[in-house]
């Protein structure tokens, strides 16, 4: 058996497999219709901090089932393997692991938002709610 990786090393390895996206670039891509923002934060965080207008809300534990283009439980937005998904969590950690999981499903254009929702809000980008 190999030595345990540790979360910091795991995140570094996962993130080396794709290019992450900054909040402003994610906003521009979503506005242009070239990316689907997917907010995986749980409900309590969305209620506390608000949501990104237009983002698809899919809690983390359902993400793979809802976005697998070949899955029987997929959402209509899961149009195919060329879909550019930008996964958003609270601070940009869980979203990295989620994006890597989407890559395993064949969504090779999936990425995550650097700094997560908190960075989006700090950048002054649109937020609906509190």
Features:
four-stranded parallel β-sheet; single chain; 6 helices; alpha/beta; about 130 residues; about 10% strand; globular
Tell me what the structure shows.
- This protein has 130 residues and is an alpha/beta fold.
- Helices cover 38% and strands 9% of the residues.
- It has 6 helices and 4 strands, in the order H-H-E-H-E-H-E-H-E-H.
- The protein has helices at residues 7-15, 23-32, 43-49, 63-67, 94-104, 116-122, and strands at 36-39, 56-57, 85-88, 111-112.
- A 4-stranded parallel beta sheet has the order 2-1-3-4, with helices on both faces.
- The model has no long low-confidence stretch (mean pLDDT 95).
Assign a percent range to the helix content.
25-40%
Strand content: 5-15%
Distance between the termini: 48 Å
What is the alpha-carbon Rg in Å? Answer: 14 Å
Total beta strand runs = 4
Described by the principal axes of the CA atoms, the overall outline is: globular
Reconstruct the topology from this structure:
Blueprint: H1 7-15, H2 23-32, E1 36-39, H3 43-49, E2 56-57, H4 63-67, E3 85-88, H5 94-104, E4 111-112, H6 116-122
Parallel strand pairs: 1-2, 1-3, 3-4
